[in-house]
């Protein structure tokens, strides 16, 4: 039976990912000067306790937190302009969760999240999700006003050009994948990938579509084209931790 990954990125994340991302964001968000604070994030004195289901959920929790950090100013302005924040029923301790879930909601074009059958609900996540969902029209309008104001085709164009160029370069880099030799041998990996339609080539310069090559220096590392990231992460080889994305 094919196992599924912890997260379905196009349709949202599991509740546990939002909680962990909010805890991470709480510790890394930008602090404004006291006379400019409009959005409050609660007590930061306690170190967050992070519990990850697996390596994949850990990675996407950090990705979500740092994506929210990158657009913190935008997300705060959307919350304020739409009058979604402040809200008496949402304490400051849940503001980080509100921000990371807003980032994900706008990233999904304000479409509803797909909840998996085996999902273990977290009350705080469902509360914030319900609140944001009921305010989707106001939030989308606030985002549209922000983009018009800044003449941006998408939120990526709001970032400084240097950061956008860095992200474009990073997204084009080949994917490096570790083979977990405690769980599977190199030959079994090669056979499994061949069954799934992948072809082994000699070098990175030969990568194209469904191909991969061995790293020149590490015998347990494979290199894939960057365009295959989503498809690779949906393979049971990753779900079973036989392959690990670097």
Automatic annotation (TrEMBL):
Please verify whether the record's keywords include Methyltransferase. Answer: yes
Please list the GO biological process terms of this entry. methylation
Q: Does the keyword Signal apply?
A: no
Extract the GO molecular function terms from the UniProt entry.
methyltransferase activity
Which named protein is this?
NSUN7 methyltransferase
Annotated NOL1/NOP2/NSUN 5/7 ferredoxin-like domain residues: 176-246
Q: What PANTHER family has UniProt attached to this entry?
A: METHYLTRANSFERASE NSUN7-RELATED (PTHR14663)
UniProtKB keywords: Methyltransferase, Transferase
- Kindly give the InterPro entries that the UniProt entry links to this protein: NSUN5_7_fdxn-like, NSUN7
Cross-referenced Pfam families, in alphabetical order? NSUN5_fdxn-like
